[in-house]
């Protein structure tokens, strides 16, 4: 069953566009320094000479929390498929619109799974613009993303970063930071945006764990890469290049499989659709056939109240 929620409110972001469509960050060194050098800021043992999934995504979004090796891979991806940055931006724009919608629905606390590097259009910035008392827990297993997020959020008692594997739901729920900020007796927004395709096993138990903990009126937001048979050959090649260089395998799922991830939740209108078509803002959509479709399925669902 698909329920209509009405459209979310609009917000906008800007950036300088590279010739391939890559938004270029402003930090000369390519990584935003919050005190100290890159070597000082990141945990020992982190390979900064290998592209990171989170940092490549940040580069495609025009963020500054990335290194030359990440930007090099982003440029290679854009050479093979010039729309890659547009698709990353479409996914990020979907996240913004979905969070706006949840805020309109009265949700004031969020758990952002696999949040990656705090980058262009942070969830806590969107939330706090609407309600300064809103609360956000970012969850990521990547030590670089966690270190950067903790530096960014130092002293902010309304948003924190928890280092955890998103598959370990019990650990996330039991973490003191989660316990301090999130009241699961009240509606919560669970954000699984562009993260479940990094889970090679069935991700349903992850979402079921949060569904069991969440109060009625909570919402689930998901975006996920589609299957290769729904992609162009160029996109398949870009994905293969990404897998090889980052060492982070991607698992593709069809629209039906992504829809199945919402089991136990009530999917809201317009259903599971390409990310750029989920309640787009004026001017978001291009003429049909102008560019290849965004190969990312997206949807929002609500945990219904029990009569």
UniProtKB/TrEMBL annotation:
CDD domains named in the record: AdoMet_MTases (cd02440)
Domain of life of the native organism: Bacteria
Annotated InterPro entries: SAM-dependent_MTases_sf, SAM_dep_MeTrfase_SAV2177_type
UniProt protein name: S-adenosyl methyltransferase
UniProt organism field: Polymorphospora rubra
């Amino acid at each position: 069953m698909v329920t209509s929620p009405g459209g979310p409110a609009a917000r906008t972001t800007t950036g300088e566009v590279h010739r391939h469509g890559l938004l270029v960050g402003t930090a000369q060194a390519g990584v935003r320094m919050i005190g100290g050098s890159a070597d000082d800021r990141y945990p020992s043992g982190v390979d900064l000479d290998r592209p990171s999934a989170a940092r490549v995504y940040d580069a495609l979004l025009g963020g500054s929390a990335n290194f030359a090796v990440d930007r090099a891979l982003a440029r290679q991806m854009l050479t093979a498929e010039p729309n890659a940055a547009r698709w990353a931006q479409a996914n990020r724009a979907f996240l913004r619109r979905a969070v706006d919608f949840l805020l309109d629905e009265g949700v004031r606390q969020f758990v952002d799974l696999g949040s990656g590097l705090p980058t262009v259009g942070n969830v806590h910035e969107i939330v706090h613009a609407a309600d300064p008392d809103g609360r956000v827990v970012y969850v990521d297993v990547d030590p670089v993303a966690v270190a950067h997020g903790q530096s960014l959020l130092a002293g902010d008692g309304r948003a924190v970063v928890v280092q955890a594997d998103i598959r370990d739901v019990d650990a996330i729920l039991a973490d003191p930071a989660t316990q301090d900020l999130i009241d699961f007796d009240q509606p919560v927004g669970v954000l699984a945006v562009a993260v479940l395709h990094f889970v090679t096993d069935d991700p349903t138990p992850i979402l079921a764990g949060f569904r069991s903990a969440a109060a009625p009126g909570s919402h689930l937001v998901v975006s996920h890469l589609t299957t290769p048979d729904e992609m162009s050959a160029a996109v398949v090649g870009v994905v293969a290049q990404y897998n090889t260089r980052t060492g982070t395998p991607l698992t593709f799922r069809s629209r039906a499989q992504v829809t199945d991830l919402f089991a136990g939740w009530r999917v809201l209108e317009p259903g599971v659709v390409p990310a750029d078509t989920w309640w787009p803002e004026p001017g978001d959509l291009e003429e049909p056939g102008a560019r290849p479709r965004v190969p990312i399925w997206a949807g929002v669902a609500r945990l219904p109240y029990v009569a």
